[in-house]
Amino acid sequence: MSGLIAYIVRRLVTGVITLVGVVAVVVLMVQALPGDPARVIAGIQATPQQVAKVRHTMGLDEPVTVQFWRYLENLLHGNLGISARTGDPVSSLIGTRLPYTVELAILGTVFGVIFGIALGVLAATHKGKITDALASMVGVAGVSMPVYWLGILLIVVFAVDLKLVPVSGAATLSSLILPSVTLGVFSMAVVSRMTRATMLDTLDQDYVRTVRAKGVAERVAVRHALRNAFIPILTVIGLQFGTLLGGAVLTETVFSWPGIGQLLVASISSRDFPAVQGIVLTFAAMFVIVNIITDLLYSVVDPRVRLY
Amino acid sequence: MTEPLLSIEDLTVTFRTRSESVRAVDGVSFEVYPGETVGVVGESGSGKSVTMLSMLRLLPRTSRVITSGRALLNGKDMLRASRRELRRIRGREVALIPQDPMTCLDPVLRIGGQLGEALRAHSSVSRDEQRKRAVELLASVGLPQPDRQYGQFPHELSGGMRQRVMIAMGMANNPSLLIADEPTTALDVTIQAQVMDILREAQAETQAGLVLITHDLGLIAEMADRVVVMYAGHVVETGEVNAIFAKPRHPYTVGLLGSLPQTGGDQDWLRPIPGSPPDLARIPTGCPFHPRCLHSHGREICRTQLPQLTPIGSDSTHRTACHFSDELADESIHGLLTVAQEIQ
Amino acid sequence: MNQPPSPDAMLESLQTAAPRVDGSPFSSRLRTFAGNKAALVGLVILLIFVILAVFAPLLTSQDPTGQNLAAAFQPPSAKHWLGTDDLGRDILARIMYGGRYTLLIGLVAVSIATIIGVPLGLISGYLGGVTDTIIQRITDIMLSFNPFLLALMLVAVFGAGAKSVTIAAGIGVIPQFIRLARGQALSIREEVYVEAAVAFGEKPMAILRRHVMRNSLAPIIVYATLNIGLTILVAAGLGFLGLGVQPPAPEWGTMLGEARSYIFHASYQMTFPGLAIFLAVLSFNLLGDGLRDAVDPSLRD
Ligand SMILES: Nc1ncnc2c1ncn2[C@@H]1O[C@H](COP(=O)(O)OP(=O)(O)OP(=O)(O)O)[C@@H](O)[C@H]1O
Ligand code: SF4
Ligand SMILES: [Mg+2]
Description:
Chain B contains twelve helices and twelve strands. Chain B is α/β, with parallel strands linked by helices and 344 residues long. Chain B folds into two domains: 6-224, 3-Layer(aba) Sandwich (Rossmann fold), CATH 3.40.50.300; 250-343, no CATH class. In chain B, the strands form two sheets. Chain B has an eight-stranded mixed beta sheet, sandwiched between helices. In chain B, strands 2-1-4-5 form a four-stranded antiparallel beta sheet, with helices on one face. Chains in contact: A-B, A-C, B-C. Bound molecules: adenosine-5'-triphosphate, iron/sulfur cluster and magnesium ion (MG).
């Protein structure tokens, strides 16, 4: 058990190192703005005084290493700076919107994982049959689908034409359905492809033959095969979570979903770089955390995996 | 005479791959009677496992397989059994103790769960009952701490312990036929003997028939009543174990016996039969053994005509598939064959 | 023992997904590829897009950018097969010309990613040690953004437009190429001929160029094909947000972004650009899957 804790600590440390790297990237990002960063952030109409004020409050007049350490220090105090657009603390802007993004990401993942696994299992157990061909088509179509287009199509069909769900917003429970499906389709496709490939392998393993030799229903054998296929499936779930977050930016825009993805697009359009920095950092942190969680789940799924 | 427990008739199994078809089993027939042990021997790749797995309908589902012939188990043709019938038969009438205990247990489930599954498959037992039975079974195959092993994962057990678990699992529903596919190859010698004792006890207790697949002729001599010798998917010789060991009548069997380590003499090594088994996608015409046969002497019939399995003299149980098996009645020839094998 | 691979190793192998190259002759690979109907469909779709894009001026007399408000919002008709948009421009013509952006962006972006990512990955895997650690840490950081966010950040800094979108999409997928090439280098490093070269005193860079690079070519081509689809999605996504190729250029993502305002009364305006993106990405994915199977039969099922 202490070994497990040591492992978690080690994973957390590498996660933190990665995030420190991300901080360096977002600090450099502002430095890299063409021309005078303070001018860009303050806006074209800003008076020289306003520009100077932005430069000073963001510490842009100091060497970049100092800015980096200052950003880290502020981060430790939960301070992500002040939004150039609204004047609010970036942390509170993100704080009010993050739950929506988390909700969407979780629902999208759940949709993708459940349907992806189901589709992959169906394809593997019906290999070479029409079910398999259809599942493969759905798989390759899913990874080729532009989420923004899919989102609009779903809106047109289900919200405008059939009027089954609201067009946009996050007001009611049913308004969750279309965005979650839109966001989850890519995950579904990736997970189904991985599930099929791994299940084709595990279904023919000796231990599954042993299960069949016991005289059980085929679905019991499939369950054994699936349990053993879970490690690679978990791995893709973790890896595609990054893509899912990218998709969330677009999905939120399409559905006017009040999460941090939409905030990111708005902040970029208004050159609100303190907000952009904070949001990008938040997305990276979400990715790192999810991948630590999937790593930890390995040992739950497979007793042979020693994490330490 | 009693009815056979298992009767395999003219079984042929072909694997089709993208480019070729592999005939792994070709026209195999033999019977197993209640309480008897039949040894199946032959070099690696001769079709021993495929024969038994196709009877159990447990060949890999992803390969394309064409099977013909019949495999009657207690009178029921397994090759034509429905899914439901298979489900009822497997584990209860026939159990498989597979070739490699390392890969045959589900790595992510505890031993107890896997045994319980076998018990539950054929009877509705309470949870407590099931646990009790499972621990009893583990004890009966000589596991040192059955209660502990019940809760362990396969990777926490040694190879010998896993093989015992496989035997316990096979015996869970007292099947009338046990198929043990090289149950001891993965184990070291002392453990081998223990595992075979346990298998023998288990069989004696239930009067089950046993098919023992092995490379180990010593094991056959010790355990089996009858022998089936396979080569390149064909049965080349079969009979009572004494008859086969004393008076083999097929050049391949002679070779196999000649390749046994000679104890007592000055030679104590294994002399394999020269050459290697044919590519099953390109089995030679005529007698499949002819390219390696030291007794053929290039005679044409060996290359053109497939010898049928025919009884030898009045002994209807001893049958062999060689055009010139009569010549092997003269045992001085055996010595010559063995010497020839040694020279090659 | 059938120990499972460690999670780290799993991750590695999944991220690189390096197809193993077998020794089968080119003709047999070609047969495998040709026998793959899906891949052929991908090739045909791609060829159609290429022809439409290259010969657009010959195939249509419509002006992709000229406005004609009198002809706005026309549904598909004999004159305008796919209808007209909010500014009266022929959607079919815009899609044909827009293919030039899409195909070029995909091709150039992946070339950028390959040219930068592959050498870095090969060096990282071949040299190991501190070099490897540094490159891998940087890759980890880039991976924690994912291609789309990375590209989005880059256009946020350097501004929208065709050039910066192409570069951004390319940089977005660099980490994937680093991982792939590193995996290749790690496995090829163990091969006999590389050991022999080392024994003969060849310099690391020469070995990398001569042996490692050449032998990882096939999987890299497969991976590049699959990533063209991804970069097209990223670039079009930026266009959709208004941060990509700028209007009036008929880039498909940008067209889709413009059409978004009119989904209630002119849904065909958004149908076709989206379909074009989907089909183009699909064609590269089908093609890539087919190439992968041809290069590495063991991955085929
Ligand atoms: N799934 C399969 N697909 C194609 N060919 C197969 C398959 N399974 C077995 N074979 C072929 O069938 C032949 C017989 O295999 P089998 O496993 O029965 O041999 P065996 O006599 O049990 O050998 P061993 O002593 O090594 O266990 C082998 O040569 C193998 O190539
Ligand atoms: S038939 Fe001919 S080749 Fe076959 S075993 Fe007999 S002698 Fe040898
Ligand atoms: Mg075998």
